[in-house]
Amino acid sequence: MAEDYPRLPAGFRFGTSTASYQIEGAVDEDGRGPSVWDTFCAEPGRIVDGSTGAVACDHYHRHAEDVALMQRLGAGGYRFSIAWPRIQPTGSGTATEEGLGFYDRLVDALLEAGVAPMVTLFHWDLPQALEDSGGWLSRDAAHRFAEYAAIVGERLGDRVEQWCPVNEPNVVTMLGYATGRHAPGRALVMDALPVAHHLLLGHGLAVQALRAAGVKQIGTATNHSPVWSDSDSEEDCAAADLFDSLWNRLFADPVLLGRYPEGFDETMPVPAGEDILDDLATISQPLDFYGVNYYNPMQLAAAADGSELPFEQCEITGYPTTDFGWPVVPDGLRELLVQMKQRYPDIPPIYITENGCSYGIGPGGDGLVDDEPRIDYLDSHLRAVARAIEEGVDVRGYYCWSLMDNFEWAEGYTQRFGLTWIDYETQARIPKRSFDWYAAVIRANS
C-alpha cells in the first residue's frame, strides 16, 4: 500500500528557505561590509553559545553543493536572502561586483537545477554603517533600502521569479529594537514603533523600485500567529487584542488595507508638513502574493501592575514542544490562514514562506539522522494547509524552514531546524530522514 502523504492541489509549490547571515559565512570576503549581526555577535553575552555567523554553513563557498541538495530534494522553489552588506558594504553607494556576482552564480545554478528562486532583500543583516546613522529608527533607511532594491532588481530581475522585500518586520521591531534580544540590541519598548513604520515604508518603496526594474511577482514574508487570550476575563482579552494588533495587524493592515489599526496612525513618524496617508499609499502597493511565516500561536494575559508592557506572554500547555520550547500546534496554521482570509477578503494568493521546527537529533551509529519528530511536524502542518485550502483559502506553496541547520540568531548553533544535518567542524552535509520524507511528499504530489 502506498504511504499516506499529505496531498495538496495540482501546481502547489514545495520549497525550502534560508537566510544569508545564517548560512553564508565569508563575512570578510569580497568587499562585504559588517552587518548589525556581526557587531551584535561580538558583544559578550548576546549569543547563547558565544558563536557567530562568520563561517556558519560556508554556503558562500559551497553553494553548488547546496543547490545539488535542492535538486535531490525535488524542491520547486528556494527562498534565500541577499546580504545587503555584500552588495553595498555601507548600505549606500556603488554596488560591489563580487557580491552581485555571487548571487548571479547562485541564481543561474538554481535555474539549471529546475529550482525557482524567491529572493528576500532584507533578512535582518542591516549594514552596520546604516545602524550607526539611526538604523530603522531613521526614515533615511527606507530610502537607502529602495536604492539597494533597485540595484538587485536590475541585476537579477530577469531570472528571479518571486521577491519578498522585508522578512518579518514585526520580529525586527519587537526583538531588535523593543526588547534588544536580537541585533541591533536596542531595548526601546514602545518607543520602537517608528521602526515598524520605516520597515513598512521601506517595503513599499522597494516594491516600487522592483516594479520599475521589471519585476513581476512581489509579496511579503511576515511572521503571523493566532493570538489566544489566557482566560475569558475582560483584562486578558484586551491584552490579547492589543498584542494581536501589535504583532499581526500593525504589519498586515497597512500593506493589505492601506491603513493602520485604530489608534496607531498618530504614533507613526512622518516629516513635518507631510501626511501619513501619503506613506500608507506607498506601503500598500499592490502585491502578487502574501507570504506567511508560521511557527506557533501565542497566548497573552494582562500584565501585573507596574509592568513595562500591558501584556505578558503565557505558556501554551497541552501540546508537545520542539527543542526550542515552542508548542507544536498544527491547527494553529489552519486557524491563522482562515483568519487572514476573513480579515482581508482581497488578500492575494498566500505562500507559507517559512514553517519548521528545531530538533537536535544527530547522526546515529549508522550515520543516519532519524528525526521522526520533524517528519511528524511537517506532515501535520502540511495537512493543516490542505484543510485551509478546503475551507477556501488560496494557498499556492509551502517553503520549509530550513534546507539545512544553521546559525539560529541569538541561540547560535544550539538549535537545529534543518532538513540537512550540518557538521560545523567539517561542513559535511547529511540529509536527515525528514529530507527523504519531504522529497517523497514532493514526488507524491508531482
Characterise this structure.
This protein has helices at 20-23, 36-41, 59-73, 84-87, 97-112, 128-132, 139-156, 169-178, 193-212, 234-257, 276-283, 330-343, 372-390, 433-445; strands spanning 13-17, 77-81, 116-122, 162-166, 217-218, 222-223, 227-229, 290-293, 298-302, 311-314, 350-354, 395-401, 420-423, 428-431. The chain is α/β, with parallel strands linked by helices and 446 residues long. The chain is built from 14 helices and 14 strands. The chain has one domain (13-445): TIM Barrel, CATH 3.20.20. The strands form three sheets. The chain has a nine-stranded parallel sheet with strand order 5-4-3-2-1-12-11-8-6. Strands 7-9-10 form a three-stranded mixed sheet, with helices on one face. Helix 3 runs parallel beside helix 5 (97-112), helix 8 (169-178) runs antiparallel to helix 9 (193-212) and helix 8 (169-178) packs across helix 10 (234-257).
Strand content: 5-15%
CATH architecture: Alpha-Beta Barrel
Tell me the number of structural domains: 1
Give the overall form: globular
Uncertain residue ranges? none
- If you average the pLDDT, what whole number results? 97
Query: What structural class do helix, strand and pairing data support?
Result: alpha/beta
What's the N-to-C terminus distance? Answer: 19 Å
Q: How would you name the CATH homologous superfamily? A: Glycosidases
